[in-house]
Amino acid sequence: MTKSMITKLFVGGLIAIAGGLVLSIGAGLAAYANGALVMNGPDVVGIEPTAFAWTMLALAVLGCVGMFGGGITQFVAWIGAVLNTSRLEDKTWFVVLLVLGILSFGFVAMLVYVLAGPDGMAEQAPPARLTTALPTA
């Protein structure tokens, strides 16, 4: 997987997470503001059986699905970055991405990799060959 594909997945995952978060919060606030939630003090104990309430619930669930999909996409981008950097001669990027990802700091490592990391799939220059002229008779 090339670095450009990893970058697209990373950014796409971020957009999906942000969009899902906005959709879920917006639907929850709209449901609360319009009385679609049955409240008992500060607790939500039910949902009014109206079309609006069920629509807001469906939008909130759709937002959660978007956030889940964005998280999966972020994970795939991280796996792609780890595999991409494993092809490099210098294993520093590989080790940093792997260790920080395992220690739950993968977002920070991926952000730095997307902004400044090398591409392990980039065309490597072939090694220089020594050429000698053969004696002619």
Features:
137 residues, mainly alpha, two-stranded antiparallel sheet, 4 helices
Helices and strands in order:
Layout: H1 3-33, E1 37-40, E2 43-47, H2 51-85, H3 92-102, H4 106-116
Antiparallel strand pairs: 1-2
Helix pairs in contact: 1-2, 2-3, 2-4, 3-4
Strand content: 5-15%
> What is the straight-line distance between the termini?
52 Å
State the helix count: 4
Spans of at least 5 consecutive residues with low confidence: none
Reported for the largest beta sheet, the result is: 2 strands, antiparallel
What does this structure look like?
The chain is mostly helical and 137 residues long. The protein has one domain. It is built from four helices and two strands. Strands 1-2 form a two-stranded antiparallel sheet. Strand 1 and strand 2 form a beta hairpin. Helix 1 packs antiparallel against helix 2, helix 2 packs antiparallel against helix 3 and helix 3 runs antiparallel to helix 4. The radius of gyration is 25 Å and the shape is rod-shaped. The termini are far apart.
